[in-house]
């Protein structure tokens, strides 16, 4: 455990379409309040540009993974995801992140938590935020992580080695409200949780096409007000309580596809519009599209044979393999979910947080700063 005053070992990685700082749990303060205060200083929050830290001024580049060996017999490592707010002093553990998850297996091997196989390695991961599990499989020829490869994912330039992530069925209900369809503020919605609490709704029901750019949607004040009201009520219906200060549930607008996929999406996280789509959010979307009577079923183009569904988003697509079963009382339930992602090391070294207290800025001479 460290206070961070002398620097903290850190591996900065791109995981999927996100970027985050990966730490060993025992190299951060054990007390959550102290840990979070240190991470704010490391990431440079609160500041719109995060100019004094590792963060990139956007929720997708202000993320943290805390990893340790697991005491769970079904897992090799524990993965705690922390979303560090950009513009306020807040660190949230209320959700998972499937993109940052893509880097957890390779990180565990790099840090010696899991021994690498001679050709490939599978790391069983417990996602501490929710208690859910996942298995990440990636190439390790000669017992070392291979980062390069020919796997390509939308929203990321170039290619890298594939990381195949498979999610077993969750223990909670796929439909947290108990209904295939609810109506909130006059808008039909389907509330799904296949790893990420998500509210699905037709873009047209909110008087947008669902093909607008993320920036245009973010600047639509009327839309923002309606989405805020829907999210608050959906959180209550989904058993999440007051979600006014949390990042879940996510909201996903659905529209007809334009590039050969099953559906086009625009996802809010919860205020900013995602430039692509999160892995676990996509898993919930894919499951939702297969629910007979759900709002997605009447919008999506049939996926054809097999489990694979292509979900379009603002910067391309994400392929999810998803299949459903049913509960004893006849409600739909998730059976299988898998996705291919990639990860890349950016740097491995020591990060130095800004000082806990900043000295007062002395008065500037006349004429201002140069």
From TrEMBL:
<dbReference type="GO" id="GO:0016853">
    <property type="term" value="F:isomerase activity"/>
</dbReference>
<dbReference type="InterPro" id="IPR007400">
    <property type="entry name" value="PrpF-like"/>
</dbReference>
<dbReference type="InterPro" id="IPR047687">
    <property type="entry name" value="OMA_tautomer-like"/>
</dbReference>
<keyword id="KW-0413">Isomerase</keyword>
<protein>
    <submittedName>
        <fullName>FldA protein</fullName>
    </submittedName>
</protein>
<dbReference type="Pfam" id="PF04303">
    <property type="entry name" value="PrpF"/>
</dbReference>
<comment type="similarity">
    <text>Belongs to the PrpF family.</text>
</comment>
């Amino acid at each position: 455990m460290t206070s961070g005053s002398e620097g903290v070992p850190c591996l900065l990685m791109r995981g999927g379409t996100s970027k985050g700082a990966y730490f060993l749990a025992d190299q951060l303060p054990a007390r959550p309040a102290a840990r979070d205060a240190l991470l704010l200083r490391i990431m440079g929050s609160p500041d719109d540009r995060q100019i004094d830290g590792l963060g990139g001024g956007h929720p997708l580049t202000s993320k943290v993974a805390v990893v340790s060996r697991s005491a769970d017999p079904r897992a090799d490592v524990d993965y705690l995801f922390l979303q560090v707010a950009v513009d306020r002093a807040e660190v949230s553990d209320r959700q998972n992140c499937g993109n940052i998850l893509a880097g957890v297996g390779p990180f565990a091997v790099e840090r010696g938590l899991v021994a690498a196989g001679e050709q490939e390695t599978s790391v069983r991961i417990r996602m501490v935020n929710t208690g859910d599990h996942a298995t990440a499989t990636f190439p390790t020829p000669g017992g070392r992580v291979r980062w390069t490869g020919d796997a390509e994912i939308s929203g990321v330039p170039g290619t890298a080695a594939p990381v195949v992530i498979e999610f077993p069925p969750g223990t909670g209900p796929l439909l947290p409200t108990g209904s295939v369809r609810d109506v909130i503020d006059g808008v039909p919605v389907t509330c799904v949780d296949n790893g990420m609490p998500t509210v699905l709704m037709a873009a047209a029901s909110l008087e947008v096409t669902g093909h607008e750019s993320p920036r245009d949607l973010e600047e639509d004040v009327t839309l923002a007000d309606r989405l805020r009201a829907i999210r608050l009520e959906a959180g209550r219906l989904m058993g999440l309580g007051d979600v006014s200060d949390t990042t879940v549930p996510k909201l996903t607008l659905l529209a007809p596809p334009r590039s050969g996929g099953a559906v086009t999406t625009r996802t809010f996280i919860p205020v900013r519009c995602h430039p692509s789509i999160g892995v676990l959010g996509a898993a919930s979307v894919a499951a939702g599209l297969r629910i007979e009577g759900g709002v997605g079923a009447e919008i999506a183009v049939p996926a054809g044979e097999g489990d694979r569904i292509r979900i379009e988003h603002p910067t391309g697509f994400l392929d999810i393999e998803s299949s459903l079963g049913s509960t004893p009382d006849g409600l739909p339930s998730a059976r299988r979910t898998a996705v291919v992602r990639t990860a890349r090391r950016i740097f491995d070294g020591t990060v130095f947080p800004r000082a806990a207290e900043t000295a007062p800025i002395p008065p500037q001479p006349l004429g201002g700063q140069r």
